[in-house]
Amino acid sequence: MIPYDGGLSLTFSVALVAPETLSVTSVYHYVFVYTRDIPPALLAWPIATLLYATGAVSAALSRVDREDRRVTAGLFALGAFDVCYAAVGFSSARAGVFAIPLGAGFLGLAAWTSRP
Predict the structure, then answer these.
(1) One matching Pfam family, short form (predicted)?
(2) Residue 91 within a domain
């Protein structure tokens, strides 16, 4: 969640959403179309999405008894740290914008429950 003077922007694992205008920017468009040559801190969001998706696939492998819980917990924990790094990248003290990394808490909880 990124509150700013003009409103609020919601950052989900698959898209950025501006509720005021109902505009949606997918991760693909964010990385490859609209923001070429973006700072590394802003690439943390797509990387966190990749870590989350890989962790979810790893957790799904438990259905066929092929999961390594250490890998799953590690992927979710790395995703949580990356979400925090992305929040720092989206924040700007000069502009008075402070991103709130709510997803880091959920990924941290997923990592904690996935630990061996």
Answers:
(1) DUF8050
(2) yes
SS3 label, residue 116 = coil
Give the pLDDT band of residue 93 (cuts 50, 70, 90). low
Tell whether 32 is covered by a domain: no
First-to-last CA distance in the chain?
31
Q: Is residue 68 part of a domain?
A: yes
Supply the DSSP symbol for 14.
S
Residue range of the domain that includes 96: 38-114
| The CA-based dihedral angle spanning residues 71, 39, 99, 109, taken in that order and rounded to the nearest 10 degrees | 0
Q: What is the domain count for the chain?
A: 1
Is the CB of residue 80 less than 8 Å from the CB of residue 104? yes
